[in-house]
Specification:
Rossmann fold, transferase, about 30% strand, OB fold (Dihydrolipoamide Acetyltransferase, E2P), EC 2.1.1.-, binds S-adenosylmethionine, methyltransferase, about 25% helix, seven-stranded mixed beta sheet, U5_MeTrfase_fam, 23S rRNA (Uracil-5-)-methyltransferase RumA, alpha/beta
């Protein structure tokens, strides 16, 4: 018999677990694991402590920095025994900020960590699959073709840098380690011009000031540079003097844009752009195709590995030239256009209007006539296309980190393509979505292939092919 608790009856007091460590406590421990965020793990009676800049296998003196009821955070006070996987030439600013949270690991160990992470997630989901070794870069620094650098006032002057991990405290930085060094130089030059003309930086607390971020994008092959000044205000004081100075000192600049973002938000770009000088896009090349890229459009940040990634995805799709293809989350049309001459037709869907405009412009620019791009939410368009009776042979999906929706997966499966090529930037959502595709009658074909699009960071890109049973 189950007896309910009667009114007034005393609640049994929940026993609250007491953490076995306290703030500022120091002790020696061995690092036994690495979290997905790149922190070392040590345990005190099974209680986990996450330690920044700690490598598995190392013996360290830990200093506790924060304690919660289920876990604690710590820092390395002293390394007692180092790991052979430690990178001793680490750029400490890149570690202290969120720029490069894996930079303390040697590159080989980073690649293994990424492979193991995907394998572990599949295994937890009871999906039996082989994850191939991560394809890495020969020179895994200075690769990013885009910077979005916050500007804040420090000691009365506009300062650029990066926020310390988990905070909005700006750390002044000039060498961003993983960015194209030409972009780093441009950021310093623009910062100094803005300082010279006393343009105020954004004050996040009082929601005042002008310059929130400086975004720079540079074409890897074209060397065309776009400078975007993201402002809280509608006006940039002294713009008529500042803009000519920027283009004079930075000859690669072909586009200077003001992006207005008046919201109290962590989202960097607003919706309104004003071309202050030059073109509204820059151009760059992938394989033999030219791409126009606007300020709000997604473009892969690592142009060197992007070519590897796209080639791999196209090869794994085993295209014959006769396929009708859907490119869901098509961005500026990079995947659609790079596979266009290997298939009958491609239909892309993308939610950012500027990116769809760029994709259409890019099809014209490259004289590609068998692609079509539609504006909309992939999850809604796919359902509509399925209801209209569309029967693609292959579907490519390349979603943002949150992955696919169940509606999209069901609609994609109901269209019964022979293959679904899943390009993922988040293994956790990849694994979740693959489980649903399996329930819908698809199985993984061959290996899951990680490609290191983001060296020195914890982000992981991979290609998985699903085949209809
Ligand atoms: C990882 S990017 C891939 C873009 C492109 N395939 C490429 O490689 O350049 C994801 C894209 O999905 C778009 N996006 C985000 N949510 C979307 C949605 N619900 N429906 C359609 N597109 C979406 C983003 O704007 C972005 O362009």
């Amino acid at each position: 018999m189950i007896v309910g608790r009667r009114k007034g009856q005393k609640k049994e007091k929940m026993m609250k677990k007491k953490a076995p460590v306290v703030k500022n406590q120091e002790f020696d421990a061995e690092v036994i694991d690495l979290t997905y965020q790149g922190n070392g793990v040590v345990k005190v009676d099974d209680f986990p402590v996450f330690v920044t800049n700690a490598v598995p296998g190392e013996k360290i003196r830990v200093g506790i920095t924060k304690v919660t009821s289920n876990y604690a955070f710590g820092r390395v006070v002293k390394t007692i025994e180092s790991s052979p996987n430690r990178n001793h030439e680490v750029n400490t600013a890149a570690l202290t900020t969120g720029i490069a949270p894996l930079a303390h690991l040697k590159y080989d160990a980073q690649l293994k960590f990424k492979q193991q992470q995907i394998a572990e997630l599949f295994s937890k989901q009871h999906i039996d699959v082989n994850v191939a070794p991560t394809i890495g870069m020969e020179n895994p620094t200075g690769y990013r073709n885009k910077a979005q650098i916050p500007a804040r006032e420090i000691k009365g002057q506009l300062t650029t840098g990066f926020f310390r991990r988990g905070s909005h405290r700006l750390m002044p930085i000039e060498d961003f380690y993983i960015q194209d060094p030409e972009i780093d130089k441009a950021i310093v030059i623009i910062r100094d011009i803005l300082r010279k003309f006393h343009v105020p930086a954004y004050d996040e607390i009082h929601h005042k000031g002008v310059i929130r971020n400086i975004m720079v994008r540079r074409g890897y092959y074209s060397h065309e540079m776009m400078v975007v000044l993201v402002t809280r205000s509608k006006r940039i004081p002294g713009a008529n003097i500042i803009i000519p100075q920027i283009k004079e000192v930075l000859p690669e600049v072909t586009s200077i844009i003001q992006n207005v973002n008046q919201d109290k938000t962590n989202v960097i770009l607003g919706d309104v752009n004003h071309v202050l000088w030059g073109n509204k896009v820059i151009k760059d090349t992938l394989f033999d195709k030219t791409f126009a890229i606007g300020p709000n459009s997604f473009y892969q940040v690592n142009p060197q590995t992007t070519e590897i990634l796209y080639k791999l995805a196209a090869d794994k799709a085993e295209l014959t030239g006769n396929e009708t293809v859907i490119d869901a989350y098509s961005g500026i049309g990079t995947i659609s256009l790079t596979i266009a001459d290997k298939v009958k037709s491609v239909l892309g869907v993308e939610v950012v209007p500027g990116a769809v405009d760029d994709a259409k412009r890019n099809a014209d620019l490259n004289n590609v006539h068998n692609v079509k791009f539609e504006l909309g939410k992939a999850e809604e368009k796919m359902v509509a296309w399925q209801q209209d009776g569309l029967k693609p042979d292959v579907i490519f999906v390349d979603p943002p980190r949150k992955g696919l929706t169940t509606e999209l997966i069901d609609a994609a499966s109901a269209m019964a393509p022979s293959k679904i090529v899943y390009i993922s930037c988040n293994p956790a959502t990849l694994v979740r979505d693959v489980a649903q595709f399996k329930e819908n009658g698809y199985t993984i074909k061959g290996d899951v292939q990680p490609v290191d699009q983001f060296p020195q960071t914890t982000h992981i890109e991979s290609v998985t092919v699903l085949e209809r049973n």
